[in-house]
Amino acid sequence: MALVAEPEQPSPDIYIPQEWSDAAESIAYDSITSPPPVAFICGAKNSGKTTFSRHLLNVLLKRYKKVAYLDTDVGQSEFTTPGFLSLTVVDKLTPDLTIPCLKTPERSFFFGDTSSKRDPKGYLSYISALYDYYRKEYSTANKEKTTKSELPLVVNTPGWVKGVGYEILVDMLKYIAPTHVVKINISTKNKNLPGGAFWLDYHSEEMVNLIEINAARQDSYNRSVLIQKDAHLMRDLRIMAYFRQCFASNLNISTIKELANALASQPPYEVPISSIKIRHLYSQVPPTEIFYSLNATIVGLAVSFEESESLPWCVGLGIVRGIDTLKGVLYVITPVPPSTLEKVDLFLQGFIQIPTSLLQVQGCVSPYMSTNVFSTS
């Protein structure tokens, strides 16, 4: 059985070519300390964007005590579960570039899907809000004095670079206006992004350092060797690793069966229905069916603000284990600490689901499969 302690299975040994090292070193050291660099990493699917981003993080951390990381890949998130857009402040080197690890982001949004295709406009609004937060807190580029130390920023992007995906990438580049753009090319040229500063208008005077590098692994014919990933499996493992955090690290929970049993016996939090709003991100649900649609699902736990209710910060995920409308409570399992959970006033439901492997463990009666919801009528 797969280990839930590992977010993904270790891939083959990471090879960092010299041009990758040179690119990372030039971003980290061939610039003045203030303002620090803003590096935007882009390229085709499976070209090595995440691996290069991890390597760049390590190089930057040798010069700066902390580095900000803006993750825009909702399908294969770096420090969060799938479906999130997040800004994370990293202060420790990553010893193994093959294995990602969960971190608590400083700010995050629950997009609720593994691709931006369903809502490109909303996707871009979340990214803009995260970058605005970075500028406010960690950059003086907006000519306002920040209360915290200036930090370099690494922006990792998804591999959807054609059609609408290309248009989204261009909008991101124009809004963020990075100091460095790293474009990773593969040998299949028709899958690459256009050459040069493709996002700039012809008459633009914007100054940017464009660095073009090739995918790390190539065969004897100089063809890119792309490491294919089981994206669905990796997402499931990341979700399971997240909910493994509900339990002490010294507990012996290392298999899917052990995690399923632990979650089935875990006492849930009682959340008053009266204190929560429910928002379905991509579907219309009749009022009489809201609780049925919410039961046995994963929800984003969010904190709304009066001045920006449409963009609520998300503090984590929860499993709605059951609903009792007579008592007026929702039963929720989550690793989010109670002090933070008390602030949650909004449940966001998207398309991030409980991994099927957790629901079909032999010998484990899953509480999520029962229809323990009372009628709302």
From TrEMBL:
<dbReference type="InterPro" id="IPR045116">
    <property type="entry name" value="Clp1/Grc3"/>
</dbReference>
<protein>
    <submittedName>
        <fullName>Uncharacterized protein</fullName>
    </submittedName>
</protein>
<keyword id="KW-0808">Transferase</keyword>
<comment type="similarity">
    <text>Belongs to the Clp1 family. NOL9/GRC3 subfamily.</text>
</comment>
<dbReference type="GO" id="GO:0000448">
    <property type="term" value="P:cleavage in ITS2 between 5.8S rRNA and LSU-rRNA of tricistronic rRNA transcript (SSU-rRNA, 5.8S rRNA, LSU-rRNA)"/>
</dbReference>
<feature type="domain" description="NOL9 C-terminal">
    <location>
        <begin position="265"/>
        <end position="355"/>
    </location>
</feature>
<dbReference type="GO" id="GO:0005524">
    <property type="term" value="F:ATP binding"/>
</dbReference>
<dbReference type="Pfam" id="PF25467">
    <property type="entry name" value="NOL9_C"/>
</dbReference>
<dbReference type="GO" id="GO:0051731">
    <property type="term" value="F:polynucleotide 5'-hydroxyl-kinase activity"/>
</dbReference>
<keyword id="KW-0547">Nucleotide-binding</keyword>
<dbReference type="InterPro" id="IPR032319">
    <property type="entry name" value="CLP1_P"/>
</dbReference>
<dbReference type="InterPro" id="IPR027417">
    <property type="entry name" value="P-loop_NTPase"/>
</dbReference>
<dbReference type="InterPro" id="IPR057570">
    <property type="entry name" value="NOL9_C"/>
</dbReference>
<feature type="domain" description="Clp1 P-loop">
    <location>
        <begin position="43"/>
        <end position="244"/>
    </location>
</feature>
<dbReference type="GO" id="GO:0005730">
    <property type="term" value="C:nucleolus"/>
</dbReference>
<keyword id="KW-0539">Nucleus</keyword>
<keyword id="KW-0067">ATP-binding</keyword>
<keyword id="KW-0418">Kinase</keyword>
<dbReference type="Pfam" id="PF16575">
    <property type="entry name" value="CLP1_P"/>
</dbReference>
<keyword id="KW-0698">rRNA processing</keyword>
